[in-house]
């Protein structure tokens, strides 16, 4: 991780609502039980819309700090896997958002509003998709069982926005070039530590036991191996011992115990697995393995090191398509286009239906002076897989490269269906904003850029842009209604942000 986001940001991330890597091993009897439903008592702390608003602020702050991946292919995978688990969970109608943290810490967490973050290090620790699914299923259970509010029931609802305020303050401090930025970040932590102590009880042993039990039911119901839950706990335990890793101080009241692993295996023995009707990134189609290798490369500081890593692996197993993909991607990252093209072409010819291979070859063509060939590839892929952000983002980016009006109009038309679904892929709003600029639609461009600012965590800037747009006399009825709706949505967020310094100082 970049030194700007060093200990202070890591510390806060470990505090936000909880993390699976160092969760307590429940020393509880083997019988299953369910925590009592607190109903409106807990839910009265915040409405679902307030919780989603807090989650959006959290996600925007992560993105503003550069802690999220700007890669639709990665986003698509983790969201698809997560939503499959949600569909087989306790509350499939509840809002969820799955995202990846650009950091090799072995961790995952659930936050208010159904926001579930998984660190790159957690993905790289797993060895099969069932293990990653076990981690996500556990976090989904924390959300469906309302654990994020149970622990805070006796505390003020203000603790949620103050936690976000602490993160925002640390983000600002970490991005500062001042020598005092580290002190400012630590001060942001300490300013709200009194309220943050309440988060320690969010994940009691009983909550952890319940999340394990319900998570494994969700896992089996979605067609995954229930023994993967115990496997991933074992893997994390070994990782901690091998690397001498200690859990964050705030979580040390619950030491990792072998009881959790034993009980997970015992529960798995009695589970009936529902066969999967389709494979979502499973080993059957290799998407999990390709996702993991792509993540490995995009979190690595030196593609040159990974070129050697993949060459060594291919020497041991020349037939591994995953290592060939990894090598081709690593080579393309350091602009070694000839060998990367040869490898990617071979993969596409052998596996024409694997999207990751086709996208890699199109990307290499586009960056290696073969733009017409790349555009043709993207066009054909979009015909086969319409309205996929993983295809349309690089396709539109290439179309906009030279500022051609016709290409910009095409890019806008391609992106509009995704934008109309109110996607939270911030990059798409920036791209369609640029497309509208080039094609001469100033109002739509302004609207898209304002949305891009919001999804990138610049909420006050976004509100200012929308208010400026609202004053224009040439808006049509529908656009004016959309702009007003955005202002209404942003206003409480900005007011909360403006209140935070005084609130934090009182904490």
UniProtKB/TrEMBL annotation:
Highest taxon listed in the record's lineage: Bacteria
Entry keyword Hydrolase: yes
Assigned keywords, A-Z: Hydrolase, Metal-binding, Metalloprotease, Protease, Zinc
Pfam families (alphabetical): Peptidase_M48
UniProt cofactor(s): Zn(2+)
Residue ranges of every copy of the Peptidase M48 domain listed in the record: 73-267
Cellular component terms per the entry's GO annotation: membrane
GO molecular function: metal ion binding; metalloendopeptidase activity
InterPro entries assigned: Mito/Outer_Membr_Metalloprot, Peptidase_M48, TPR-like_helical_dom_sf
Name of the molecule in the record: Putative Zn-dependent protease
